[in-house]
Automatic annotation (TrEMBL):
Entry annotated with the keyword Glycosyltransferase: no
Positions of transmembrane segments: none
Gene3D superfamilies xrefs: 3.30.1440.10
Protein name from the UniProt record: Large ribosomal subunit protein uL5 C-terminal domain-containing protein
Length: 293
């Protein structure tokens, strides 16, 4: 005789429940190719740009003049200029914990840092292992005309692609703004992140061909910087026409758009970042100097 199933709340009912584990389940989130982990396939894991690879394909066809100039000259000069004897690490303002006496502090977010809007990084003494260097150049193009006329979005993206040789990423509005008739998700511009050889080419073109021809350009303002070693520069639509990629093909680009250029460095302070960029040929000026005179 088969007894009907009866739901019980005894100790034996816990055996039928699913187990609970305090370890985060990552086995179904991360895909692991176990066959590639075998020592027999070590040659397959070697990247294609490595000369040891069977399918070697060279990716560098020319010398990087900016990179060689930094390694041969600037790196040692910056170490000599920025090195300080007996320097110690300066701790930045971090997020603070709540007082343990409060019963609501268990799962509460940490408090904001003191006197700053965002947490700061620690400033380590500059040595041979952390000399400031340029890691990337971010170019962002945002125009009100693109929002009003969607066809200009194609021209703006083609302009960045022509200047950087990289396919730009599409920018879309994140909030609604009634004054400009902006809606969330509407296309408004493009952005590009330059690294490696493309970064060196753009920096050389900017410092040697474009900025010297701009009559109104006095330099980058001393107040530019985000206190984390990133310096920004703005170019207007008329300044973009001095790029040789645009100047020799003005019939294809009857309308140009200005954009912002952000130099990303490994420097911990803006002063070290300015010293690095000035060595590459970017001048700086103080807008308040003439006013004081």
């Amino acid at each position: 005789m088969i007894k009907p199933w009866i739901r019980t709340f005894s100790t034996s009912s816990s055996l039928l429940r699913a187990g609970y584990s305090s370890v985060e389940p990552v086995h179904h989130l991360v895909k692991v190719n176990k066959a590639a982990l075998s020592p027999r396939y070590e040659e397959v894991l070697i990247p294609k740009d490595d000369i040891r690879s069977l399918g070697f394909k060279p990716t560098e066809f020319e010398q990087d003049r900016v990179k060689e100039h930094y390694q041969n000259t600037l790196q040692s000069d910056l170490l000599l200029a920025l090195y300080e004897h007996d320097a110690q690490t300066i701790e930045g303002q971090k997020r603070r914990r709540w007082e343990p006496d409060s019963p609501y502090a268990l799962y509460r977010h940490l408090r904001k840092a003191r006197h700053v809007n965002r947490p700061q990084r620690d400033i380590h003494p500059i040595g041979p292992e952390n000399v400031p260097q340029l890691t990337g150049i971010a170019i962002s193009l945002y125009s009100k005309e693109i929002v009003q006329e969607p066809l200009w979005n194609i021209a703006a993206r083609l302009q960045l692609a022509q200047l950087t040789n990289i396919k730009p990423k599409q920018l879309k509005n994140k909030v609604n703004y009634q004054a400009w008739k902006l809606r969330r998700g509407k296309k408004c511009g493009a952005k590009v992140m330059l690294t490696g050889q493309e970064m060196s080419r753009f920096l050389t073109t900017l410092t040697e061909l474009v900025l010297p021809r701009i009559r109104t350009f006095k330099g980058i303002k001393e107040t530019s910087g985000d206190r984390n070693g990133n310096i920004s520069l703005g170019l207007e639509a008329a300044d973009v026409k001095f790029f040789p990629e645009i100047e020799h093909f003005q019939d294809l680009y009857p309308k140009t758009f200005g954009f912002h250029v952000t130099f990303k460095t490994t420097a911990r302070t803006d002063e070290a970042a300015k010293a690095l960029l000035s060595s590459f040929g970017l001048p700086f000026y103080d807008p308040k100097a003439k006013e004081n005179k």
